[in-house]
Amino acid sequence: MNKTPIETDWERALAHKEGDLIPYEAGDGPYDPNDSEASRAWLAQADLVRHGKLVRRGQRGPQVAPTKTLISLRLSPEVINHFKATGRGWQTRIDSTLLESIRKRA
Of 6, 26, 70, 101, which is most buried with the most CB atoms under 10 A? Predict the structure, then answer.
């Protein structure tokens, strides 16, 4: 998985005390972080990028019709821990494993 390099200036961030103005110069970023109205406006129009894909907050991607059914299912802790240990998408992998089991029996 590709990770975006972190460019945070931690010395500068940790030196900030509650109530202090945040040091800002025009070249630091698109808005003055001490101006709460400008901060809200910038965040409201900002794009959210997740895993290299542009997404909008609170919106799902296009879906013609639901492809899965939402249910409540109780599984043993061993099953959940096994699939969660493999990372993101563990619920999809459980679904794939169950589908594979069905196809083998058919």
Answer: 101
Question: How many whole angstroms separate alpha carbon 45 and alpha carbon 42?
Answer: 6
∠77-87-97 over CA atoms, to 5°?
A: 65
> What is the Cα 7 distance to its own chain's centre?
19
CB 47 within 8 A of CB 54: yes
> How far apart, in whole angstroms, are the C-alpha atoms of residue 7 and residue 37?
25
As a whole number of angstroms, the distance between CA 102 and CA 104 comes to: 6
As a whole number, the mean pLDDT across the chain is 84
| Domain assignment of residue 14, yes or no | yes
**39 within a domain of the structure (yes/no):** yes
- Mean pLDDT, rounded, for 20-30: 79
The position carrying tokens 């999809």 is: 92
Neighbours of 105 (CB within 10 A): 6
Is the pTM of the predicted complex or chain greater than 0.70? no
Domain count of the chain?
2
**pLDDT score of 39:** 82
